[in-house]
Structures are given as structure tokens and as C-alpha cells.
Amino acid sequence: MIIKTIIIVAVIISVLLLLLFVVMRGKYIVEKLSVSKLKFLLMIKGDEAAKKYALKIIDKSPKNYLAHKILGQLYEREGNIKVALDEYIRAVELNEQDYEMHYKVAELLQKTDKIEESIIMLQDLLKIKPDYLQASLLLGNIFCDEERFKEAVSVYMTALKYNPTEYELYYNIGIAYTRLNDFQKAKEFYKRAAKLNSYLYNGQYNLALIAMIQGELDEAEKYLLRASNQEELEPIVYFYLAQIALLRGEEEKALNYINLALELDKEIEKRIAEQTVFLPIQNKIRIPNEPSRHIKITLSEKEIKTNNYLEKMYNLVDSLNGGKISNTNEEKDIDEEQIDNDKER
Asked: Across residues 329-336, what is the average pLDDT?
């Protein structure tokens, strides 16, 4: 009797488990079909129809992870960042293994000025997945934006262990060391980046400015000529090439360069007025009547700030040397106290 009862109970449990499996499997299949239809709508009828259907899916199945993810993408695409962020956070809660969603949450937290939350999110993500290149780049860039350059270097250097051929890491380390006034290390990393990507013209420009700070005019000229291949950098490149030519006493060459710079960017006229080095050719410089041609800005804010910083340091060193930076291969010592005071101003 006992055995018979056990058998009956076992059969009932088996049937219930089977029914549960069928129900769960059916629910899974329905959810998959719903998401497939959602993706189809997205391709055929566009974002608005897909968004309505995604909301309908979530209303019936609040834990449908893919529906939340796609809905977040749709909101982000239409510029509704805060709502997109809520959907991405929900997607992360439903599927913690989707590291792309962790990254997206961190990215949108940064865009909504929730910087510390974004940093924590990225740090947690990199503990789980230390080889996630985009997460390392974003975290390092946030630290650079916040002027926490030592922390940025640490993040980029760790990322190099997993991505040793990624030029952008070397380039960003160069930028961070530049802002730390460690120009020798900055030069080393810019050079490594340039070896991996010959089209990294802004890296060549930064190398040129460092060479000018150190009084290495031959080296500066070499890097400036390479950097001139980027349209955005052409005017300022010719401006510095003109300075180098004047320091060598090559007035005709300097005049050609500075006239080229002015043709591209009439604003260079203001820079010329600030530099006594141009006095010998001042009366021969041709100021264009026409406005400058439009040059598309492609450099990031971080790159522009670094370029401006290097130009500022060069002008400071130039003034400390009485406007006579010489052509030498010996590295010039920079008065750190004066630089720090200049930064504070």
C-alpha cells in the first residue's frame, strides 16, 4: 500500500513537473517570438511602431530582458537619454551577464553628469571583465575630463596588458602624461601610438610641441610636417613651422609658411601679434581680406585641451628663455614652480 502511494505521488509530481516545463518552455517560446516580431517591426516599420510593440511586450512580460534592451536603444536613438537609462538598468537587473548593457549604463550615466556613478559602474565592470577595451577607454577618458590624470594612466596601463597593440591606449597615456608635465614619458607613448597608427596626426603634432619645448627644432619640424596631413591642424602647423624657420634665420621660408597659415585661418593674425619672433617679417606678412575657409573640427575636447596646454607650456618656456629657444638636442629643464603658477592662473 505504501509503495503504491509512493508510486502515485511520484507520477503526480512527474506530471506536474512536465506541465511546468511545458508552460515555461511555451512562455519562453512566446517571448522569443515576440522579440523576433519586435526586431522585424524595427526593420520594416521603423522606431515608433517598434517602440509601441516593445511597450506592449513589457506590459505582458515585465521581465522580458531583450524587450527592455531594445526599448532602451530606441529611446536613446530619439534622444530620450533618461528613459533609455532606466530601460538599460532594468535590462542589467534581468541579465547581469550582458556586459554591453553594463557599459551602456555607465556611458549614459556619464552623459547625464552622474560621473561618480559612472566611474563605479565601470570599475565594477572591469573587475569582472578586465579585458573590456571600451570600458577602459571610457573610464580613462572620464578621469582625464575630471583632470585625474594619474588615475587615467593607471586605467590605460592596466588595459594595455590585455590590448598591447591598441594604439588608442598609448595615445591616451601620452595625453595623460602631457597633462602631468612628464613630457619624456608622453613622448615615449606618442611614438608608440604613431608606430601603430601612422594616421594619428594629432599625436605627431603633440610630439612636435614637446620637441619645441625641449628645444629640438629639427625633430619638431619633422613631426610638424607629418601633422600637416590633417586639415584641421594645417594652420597651426604652418604657424609653428614659420617660427622654426625664423629661429634659423630663414625669413623667406618663414614668410611662405605664415602666409599659408593665414590663408587657412585668418585668426592666426592674433597669434602673430603676440609673438616677437615675427617682428623681422612683420611688414611682409600678407593678411587676407577674405574670411577663413571652414575647417571641420574632428578633434575631441580632450585633444583640444591637451594641444592648448602644450602650446601654453611652449610659450611659457619660450618667455623664460627670452624668446630664444635654441636648436639643440639637449632636453631643457622646465621651471615646475612657474608652470604650476601658470596653471593656477
From this structure: 42
Given a cut of 80, whether residue 75 has pLDDT beyond it is yes
| pLDDT tens-digit map of 274-325 | 888 999 999 999 988 887 777 888 999 999 999 999 999 998 887 776 655 5
- E strand or H helix that includes residue 308: helix 301-320
Sequence-ordered list of residues with C-beta below 8 angstroms from that of 27, at least 6 positions apart, any chain: 61
Per-residue H/E/C for 48-113: HHHHHHHHHHHHHCCCCHHHHHHHHHHHHHCCCHHHHHHHHHHHHHHCCCCHHHHHHHHHHHHHCC
Diameter of the chain measured on Cα atoms? 117
Tell me how far apart the alpha carbons of residues 333 and 6 are, in angstroms, rounded to a whole number: 90
Return the half-sphere exposure (C-beta side, CA atoms, 13 A cut-off) of residue 113. 0
Containing 220, the helix (H) or strand (E) segment is: helix 217-227
Q: In the predicted model, what is the mean pLDDT of residues 189-206? A: 96
Q: Looking at residues 106-120, what average pLDDT do you find?
A: 96
Report d(CA 333, CA 213) in Å as an integer: 9
Q: Is the whole model's pTM more than 0.85, yes or no?
A: no
The three cell numbers locating residue 219: 625633430
Distance CA(197)–CA(188), nearest Å, equals 15
Tell me which of 1.20.120, 1.25.40, 3.30.200, 1.10.1740 is the CATH number of domain 199-345.
Answer: 1.25.40
pLDDT at 293: 76
In sign, the C-alpha dihedral spanning 24, 26, 29, 35 is negative
Rounded Cα–Cα distance for residues 69 and 83 (Å): 12
Spell 157-188 as b/e; 16+ CB within 10 A means b.
eebbeebeebbbbbbbbbbbbbbeebbeebbe
